[in-house]
Amino acid sequence: EKGGYEHFMLKEIFEQPKSIHDTLRGRLLVEEGIIKMAGIWDHLERLNQAQKITIIACGTSWHAGLIGEYLIEEFARIPVEVEYASEFRYRNPIITDKDIVIAISQSGETADTMAAIKMAKEKGAFVYGICNVVDSSISRITDAGSYTHAGPEIGVASTKAFTSQLTVLSLIALKLGKHNGHLSNQEFMKLITELDALPKKVEEVLESTHEHVKEIAKHFIGAQNFLYLGRGYNFPAALEGALKLKEISYIHAEGYPAAEMKHGPIALIDENMPIVIIAPKQGHYDKIVSNVQEIKARKGRIIALVNKGDTQVASVADFVIEFPETSECFSPIIASIPLQLLAYYIAVYRGANVDQPRNLAKSVTVE
Ligand code: M6R
Predict the structure, then answer these.
(1) pTM tops 0.95, yes or no
(2) First-last CA distance in the chain
(3) Catalytic residue set
């Protein structure tokens, strides 16, 4: 059942070219220049007239939600808030029948997300679900939704479900933006063409980074802390990279927006602090370059994720992982792959049970 892989997690990491393809299948019709999503189409007016969209989720799904915020605000120009379901439900949030709530959940069974949806519905909001498990509780109580179609995810650490959530959120943002006029046809066509190429790029990055990341991981088996940094779309990707590492390797890791480093975390940096920095060409590259220099000046050990052919960041970093270029909005999908592999191999070398980490369950049905 593990298809020749040592763990479900590794199998699921390697399934991503296919799972992303499955998420796009039947929805992204590049030649016709359309995105077909019945759940969005049927409620297009309500969605596009929303004054605010609130995304609720937990864990990795919450990280996907943060990237969803960037996507929807950039392309559809609708204000988005992202909340932990567990915070949202206990704080009497301002939600009316004019609100749209998007709930994201791989399992579709997370207790806090479920309770938050019920509360939003009682307040009259229209609730849209993004679930992976077909016919799960959340997919049944939401007013409409889209499945991620990533296939069963067995490893407790979410991998392919995350990249499929990002893919669905990209489709939604582009479709809303196209229909509400905020996205020009030309820009729309350019972005959907790139979206269509993602499965191929994910395959490429798996092939080109797998062995290399496995080697890099050996250098960090004894680390006690890790810092993950990224900007813009890759800030949530940094949070997700850190979550993966802490869940399965039990190494303490934190994600930060790179520019926040100087407001505190920089005090932690010395030769014992490994720092993973996501630094694609787009998205304030020059700022990232100076962040990397600041870290090096304090002797931090840098693992940099850069686009192919990068020299500036690469020349300062201790370890370099190259990944293919895309528009900034899709870069978290690509950058997440080596981060998953890094967490996986560090955990494996430390002898941890990666598929079933201690104290964790695949779906958290307790509050
Ligand atoms: O099934 P859900 O997406 O609702 O689960 C939410 C979180 O419990 C989940 O993402 C958790 O953080 C994972 N173990 C992350 O790898």
Answers:
(1) yes
(2) 32
(3) 362
